Amino acid sequence: MSQPLDGATAVVTGASRGIGEAIARSLAASGARVALVARSRDALHTLAAELGNRALAVECDVSEAAGVHAAVATIITAFGGPPRILVNSAGLFHPAPIADLDAAAFDSMLSVNLVAPFRFVRSLLPAMREAKRGHIVTIGSVADRTVLPGNSGYSASKFGARAVHEVIRTETKGSGVRATLVSPSAVDTPIWNGLTAAARANFPKAEDMLSADDVARAVLYAVTQPETVNVDELRITRS
Fold first, then answer.
1. Average pLDDT of the residues in 42-56
2. What does the DSSP 8-state code read for residue 100?
């Protein structure tokens, strides 16, 4: 039986866990060959082995420009060209009041959540434009337009990512390249692991959060629309 993404290729960053893993599984199950980009070697290769010939494991620390450059070169060589779908999902979350937030933590969130997606887009967009085909998906957050206490670094990165998405959409309209922002409310993933009880108290309980699969379904919906349709933005919350 044919699948909606048969013959398609995709790149998912942060693919070794959480939202990225769920998206990678969903795209692969729908027929795409997926480049799994992550720095967690063991989890990455375990997932790649599970997905079989639909997966390509690409170890990469997305916070490093050289790592992104090497990953993109590997992916283009393996796929024989640019991917049809790019999902920027890798993310860092270090909530803390501004007075307590270490500058290095602030910088790391901007690097992973904002600069790294730009680097992937910058590296792949020209070839997508030339092919007159491609879909760039940015995983946003409720924090990309809502200010929350303790979220100075995370909100700064996500507000920025939303702005970059809107510029991408403006610049690619009519080119054959599509762009979608998927912004979920709190999602139950390992990103919450390691937070103190005090930090967790400011956020919903796990049972009141979305699941990673909820976000993956939103992404799949966007990328399987007819090529004449662009889903500009999807905001999803727990009902």
1. 96
2. T
- C-alpha Rg value of the chain to the nearest Å: 17
Domain boundaries along the sequence of the chain: 9-236
Three-class SS state of 45: helix
Beta-carbon count within 10 A of 110 CB: 18
8 Å CB contact between 114 and 164 = yes
pLDDT category, 204, cuts 50, 70, 90? confident
How far apart CA 204 and CA 201 sit, in angstroms, is 8
Residue 40: partners with Cβ closer than 8 Å, 6 or more residues away: 16, 17
- In the structure encoding, which two tokens stand for residue 13, read together? 């960053």
d(CA 226, CA 1): 19
User: 9-236 in CATH: which number?
Assistant: 3.40.50.720
Determine which helix (DSSP H) or strand (DSSP E) holds 137, and give its type and residue range. strand 134-139
Active site residue 154: yes
Could you tell me which residues come within 8 angstroms of residue 133 by beta carbon, excluding any fewer than 6 positions away? 84, 176, 177, 227
Residues facing residue 136 across a β-bridge: 86, 179
Contact in structure between 11 and 35 (CB atoms under 8 Å)? yes
- In the set 93, 106, 120, 154, the catalytic residue is 154
Look at residue 200 and tell me whether its pLDDT is greater than 80: no
Q: Which two tokens stand for residue 73?
A: 């070169």
Residue 66 has pLDDT above 80, yes or no: yes
Three-state secondary structure call for residue 14: coil
User: In this structure, which amino acid lies at residue 215?
Assistant: V
Write down the mean pLDDT value for the chain.
95
